[in-house]
Amino acid sequence: MFSCNSSAEIVYRKKENMVSVIIPSYNREKTIKKAIESVLNQTYRDLEVIVVDDGSTDHTSQVIGEIKDERLRYIYQENAGACVARNRGIHLASGEIIAFHDSDDLWRADKLEKEMNALQKSGADVVFCKLVRHNPDGSTTDMPSDGKEGFLNPIKNLFGIGTQTLLAKREVFAHEQFDKEMPRFQEFEWLYRISKTHSIYCVDEGLVDYYVGADSISSNPKKVYDACKLINEKHPELIKEYPQMGERMAYSLLLAAAKEKQKKNSVNAYISMALNCHVNLKILIKCLKVMMP
């Protein structure tokens, strides 16, 4: 392993069959090692792992330094957000195929092998697999629940596709990288943009284990509100053209509102935006108001 920083970075010659796996990390000293090892232990061996440390203040760098594998690269940057970290990893990647992982989740051993097979056989530009969500109560949920094997054609819904399930040709990122303004739903917003010009294929199998933690971004209702607001501003046509996506945004806003039930002004704002996203949810919203008098 070697490390580099902003003053001395190396951009590698691109390699056709190599998969560059980018892992943004912030203060994940307790989970980062297992996350990295789940990639290094893949049955598909032609890969590199690029960990972009987004300004961690814990022992993340020391933990990574204990992993002895020449395929692992470590880059430190001042805190700028996960999207910036992912984009930086793309810039530094050696492979012609780009994948992403999260520092607190795990890949199953054949994840890359099955996705690469799908990519090569289908000719798709982007491939994703199902994500197995491990809920705090011990239950599991496969996401996205409505995804089936094959191309998304026609595209109806892109919600529920996790960043850590994505595998894409480098060329897809030539003009469309992650939007650094997005506090959440960054993969959805990116997928929506690239779906206009690139093909997307679903591997209908749960190959990534996603663990919901107390400090997860998904547990932060304000980030849900801000993300939906940005999506509506950046893509005002989305709700009309893709009603299923609007419905999912509305549902996410209602769940966020339930977490903010002690803050009346916030709840009203969330409900108002949910109505804008999907007016047919009026009955559900009435139920929500009963739950939160």
- The helix/strand order is EEHEHEHEEHEEEEHEHHHHH
Gyration radius, rounded: 19 Å
Q: What is the terminal-to-terminal distance? A: 56 Å
Give the % helix: 25-40%
Structural class: alpha/beta
Unreliable spans are 1-8
Largest sheet properties: 11 strands, mixed
**What's the total number of strands?**
11
Beta-strand residue percentage: 15-25%
Form type: globular
Q: What's the overall average pLDDT, rounded?
A: 89
**Separate helix tally:** 10
Describe the structure.
It is built from ten helices and eleven strands. It starts with a strand and ends with a helix. Strands 1, 2, 3, 4, 5, 6, 7, 8, 9, 10 and 11 form an eleven-stranded mixed β-sheet that branches. The protein is of the alpha/beta class and 293 residues long. α6 runs antiparallel to α8 and α8 packs antiparallel against α9. β7 and β8 form a beta hairpin. The protein is globular.
